Amino acid sequence: MKRLAAFLISILIVYVIYYDLTQGTLPESKEPVIEAMAPINGSLPFFEKKVSPGETVLSIVEKKINGPLPVPINKVISDFTNLNKGIKPEEIKFGYTYKFPNY
Q1: pLDDT at 75
Q2: CA 8 to CA 43: how far, in whole Å?
Q3: Where does residue 70 rank: exposed (0-12), middle (13-18), buried (19+ CB within 10 A)?
Q4: Whether the Cβ atoms of residue 87 and residue 81 lie closer than 8 Å to each other
Q5: Which pLDDT score is estimated for 24?
Q6: 7-52 confidence digits (pLDDT tens)
Q7: Residue 43 exposure: Cα atoms within 13 Å on the Cβ side
Q8: Which of the two residues, 40 and 66, has the higher pLDDT score?
Q9: String of DSSP letters for the chain
Q10: Confidence band (pLDDT; 50, 70, 90) for 83?
Q11: Contact, 69 vs 103, CB < 8 A?
């Protein structure tokens, strides 16, 4: 009897795992996602800073605003690249001065 109960419980666990991986247990959001876009005024507010060893673009921007980022990380990366003539955030070097977006 114990073997039968253990077998049925194992079948139930395998089914639950299978169902969770294929269908999921969280409800899907049926609401359309609307992204707000800021008007483009041609100029992005920025500040200039000399990079110290160990600093990253995100750490510098978060330190400047004294908190978490109010925009997605992708926006910070694209704004930094636009302000610095195509330089990617992973290419910054300490000792150089760069323009950082000011949110």
Answers
A1: 93
A2: 66
A3: exposed
A4: yes
A5: 75
A6: 999 999 999 888 888 887 766 666 666 555 555 555 789 999 999 9
A7: 3
A8: 66
A9: -HHHHHHHHHHHHHHHHHHHHHT-SSPPP-SPP--------S---EEEEEPPTT--HHHHHHHHHTSS-SS-HHHHHHHHHHHTTT--GGG--TT-EEEEE--
A10: very high
A11: yes
Assigned token pair, 60? 């510098």
Structure tokens at 76: 């910070």
Token reading at 97: 């001065």
Residue 58 contacts residue 76 (beta carbons within 8 Å): yes
Buried b (16+ CB within 10 A) or exposed e, 31-40: eeeeeeeeee
Give dist(CA 21, CA 79) in Å, integer. 38
